[in-house]
């Protein structure tokens, strides 16, 4: 039963000449003053989400994007500021790019934010998908297997640090603590100071390719999943696979439980008007993400995600996104009707997340947040 609503903002600034015929992605370069606009937009969205009754504002961590697309490098730090500007809305990490961190620094930063915000930061982890980011921090991205191996070890360290009063770790990439003397005694274990006070820590991870290894890792560690802007047939498969993998690991879940269903949307009086409004931003998003192999509007896209191959921006059309229900465009009644279908299909699902394409202006995002809250969310109030 759907009762919880969140929204996602990835940190783009106001962009000029959006769309396939607009400025090429690699030709965009903005001043530092312009790039900091992302923080003003985040504050505005946090205020709107808080006022309108959204549970969580999810934010994305990214680095080095002078193009103005994803400009938030540290979510826990920003979350502390946002929590002190708002009353109720939570700030979600979608996602901390773990291979750009030392795992203990990320654990410390999250624990500090958990305490200072009184539990209003939601922890989320991802492996990353920008080579410029992860490789610039000295860790693997081009080698997908090495990236996954590092990520899994980092998560194991973070979980130990969160859950155990003191711990040690011996792995391929980390020896914690190091074998050194400390004040006259051999160092055997360390303690994360501080540890999160809101326990157990809820952890979310994106489901991007639906791989058996990735789902098994999530199930073994109790990690919840977000499936966002993904073709309907893939959502159905991955929801079932997540449930079955959890069952094999000793957790009985209703279909859709411990998952978030995310989609991009545009509300207007007709489908045509909604698509016309969304089209330039859809195209800008495709222009950015297709070369990174990060579109999921069909089976062929997911094959490219798995293989880390570039996709064609022109092959990803808004019509295809709407047809496959990765995008919902149209009047509020149509969106309500589809979410009611989703509610029936996945009886364990209680949480949906709305979002927009990179490049969508701030005033459009707030207008859409407001319309969804006032014209869609009331249909799900029990």
Walk me through what this model shows.
With 382 residues, the chain is an alpha/beta fold. It is 42% helix and 15% strand. It has 13 helices and 14 strands. The strands form 3 sheets. Strands 1-2-3-5-10-11-12-14 form an 8-stranded parallel β-barrel, surrounded by 6 helices. A two-stranded antiparallel ribbon has the order 6-7. Strands 8-9 form a two-stranded antiparallel sheet. Helix 2 packs parallel to helix 13, helix 3 (75-85) packs parallel to helix 4 (103-116) and helix 7 crosses helix 8 (232-248). The chain is globular. The termini are close together.
Secondary structure topology:
Elements: E1 4-9, H1 32-35, H2 37-52, E2 56-59, H3 75-85, E3 90-93, E4 96-97, H4 103-116, E5 121-126, H5 131-136, H6 144-163, E6 169-170, E7 175-176, E8 181-182, E9 185-186, E10 203-206, H7 212-221, E11 224-228, H8 232-248, E12 259-267, H9 271-289, H10 299-307, H11 318-323, E13 327-330, H12 332-345, E14 351-355, H13 362-375
Parallel strand pairs: 1-2, 1-14, 2-3, 3-5, 4-5, 5-10, 10-11, 11-12, 12-13, 12-14
Antiparallel strand pairs: 6-7, 8-9
Helix pairs in contact: 2-13, 3-4, 4-6, 7-8
What's the alpha carbon Rg, rounded to whole Å? 21 Å
* Helical residues, percent: 40-55%
Instruction: Give the structural class.
Output: alpha/beta
Major sheet summary line: 8 strands, parallel, barrel
Order of helices and strands: EHHEHEEHEHHEEEEEHEHEHHHEHEH
Question: How many helical stretches?
Answer: 13
* Strand order across the largest sheet: 1-2-3-5-10-11-12-14
**Would you report the number of β strands?**
14
Q: Percent of residues in beta strands? A: 5-15%
What is the residue-averaged pLDDT?
Answer: 95
Distance between the termini: 10 Å
Low-confidence stretches: none
Tell me, briefly, the overall form: globular
């Amino acid at each position: 039963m759907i009762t919880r609503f969140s929204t996602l903002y990835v940190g783009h600034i106001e962009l000029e000449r959006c769309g396939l015929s607009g400025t090429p992605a690699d030709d965009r370069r903005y001043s530092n003053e312009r790039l900091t606009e992302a923080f003003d937009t985040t504050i505005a969205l946090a205020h709107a989400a808080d006022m309108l009754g959204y549970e969580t504002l999810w934010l994305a961590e990214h680095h080095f994007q002078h193009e103005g697309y994803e400009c938030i490098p540290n979510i826990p730090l920003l979350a502390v500021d946002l929590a002190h500007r708002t009353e109720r809305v939570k700030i979600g990490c979608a996602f901390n790019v773990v291979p750009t961190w030392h795992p203990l620094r990320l654990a410390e930063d999250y624990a500090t934010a958990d305490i200072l915000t009184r539990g209003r930061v939601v922890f989320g982890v991802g492996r990353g998908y920008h080579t410029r980011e992860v490789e610039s921090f000295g860790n693997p991205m081009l080698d997908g297997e090495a990236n996954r191996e590092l990520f899994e070890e980092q998560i194991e360290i973070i979980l130990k640090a969160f859950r155990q009063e003191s711990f040690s770790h011996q792995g391929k990439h980390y020896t914690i603590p190091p074998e050194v003397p400390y004040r006259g005694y051999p160092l055997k274990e360390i303690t994360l100071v501080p540890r999160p006070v809101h326990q157990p820590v809820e952890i979310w991870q994106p489901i991007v390719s639906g791989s058996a290894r990735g789902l098994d890792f999530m199930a073994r560690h109790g990690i919840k999943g977000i499936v966002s802007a993904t073709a309907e047939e893939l959502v159905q498969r991955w929801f079932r696979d997540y449930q079955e993998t959890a069952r094999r690991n000793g957790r009985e879940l209703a279909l859709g439980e411990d998952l978030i269903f995310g989609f991009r949307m545009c509300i207007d009086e007709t489908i045509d008007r909604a698509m016309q409004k969304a089209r330039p931003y859809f195209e800008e998003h495709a222009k950015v993400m297709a070369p990174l192999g990060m579109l999921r509007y069909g089976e062929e896209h997911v094959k490219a995600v798995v293989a880390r191959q570039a996709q064609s921006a022109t092959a990803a059309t808004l019509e295809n996104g709407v047809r496959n229900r990765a995008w919902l465009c149209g009047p509020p009644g149509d969106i309500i009707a589809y979410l009611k279908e989703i509610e029936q299909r996945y009886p364990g699902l209680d949480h949906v997340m709305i979002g927009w394409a990179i490049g969508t202006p701030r005033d459009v995002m707030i207008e859409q947040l407001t319309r969804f809250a006032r014209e869609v969310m009331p249909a799900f109030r029990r």
